[in-house]
Design a protein that fits this description.
about 0% strand
Amino acid sequence: MKIKRDQITGLALILIGIIIAVMVNQFKVPFSVSYPGPKALPMIAVAGFVICGAGIFIESTKSTKEEQVFLLKEGWIRVLISMVILAVYIFAMKFVGYLIATPVACYILTTLYAKGSNTTLKGRLLYTVILTLAVYVIYVFAFGLGLPSGELFG
């Protein structure tokens, strides 16, 4: 029996969910219905990872369709560049904060993935600003959480 790419993806999602569950259970804050605390959102993500991973694995196992090529060389290069950009973004956020690092990283990523499509500079900039502000508003005003302000400005 040949293992399919989707089976590996499903198992990886289940494994990621289990790892996150173990990490979240190390939080010292009790989890209750009246105050779910910081465990609630990650545990919802864990359920999503495990359920979706299991679904992907089962569907792939039942499927008799032949797999197509997943990514060409150029696609793998984009994935690698994206990982580097995200690593630099996380590092930069510590120093310059969310409001500077996020739009820069978002714009770079949207430009990287816009090659070959019909997007404009104005469209990518608008998307970058809207995404950055939406996440900021949700975290700061809806959840009452802070985002990194950066060591240079904080």
